[in-house]
Please model this.
Amino acid sequence: MRRESWRALFHQRRLWWAGAFRHWWINVDRNLLHLPPVLTSYYLIGIWASWYFKWWTTLSSPWMIVFPFYALAQVLVLPPFGALKYFELARRRRCVGRYQFGYRRREVLRVIARVMTYPTGRQ
Model:
């Protein structure tokens, strides 16, 4: 790979981690209210699919020897760079990056209560 492509990959990953930092830490209250069922389902489906299809047995590339080092860099090196990039972008834009949608838990409960009053058609 050329030097420019490694630099571009680093910048792309750094911005990705900046977005992840904003999503998980700056908007933690929104995530706790809205995402747990979705994320739990996503993780369960991902774990089930990896066991069912046994994807790890289909990876026989010699490049897989590099993967542990790449994964280590992804979880130890890039998150601090991403957090720093987030603070840089937030300062430059003068915007913390809070999500604008409101809390919808009450609205969901109202819809569920309304649906429960629907006639079932059974006598």
Observations:
- The chain has a mean pLDDT of 79.
- The first helix runs from residue 3 to 26.
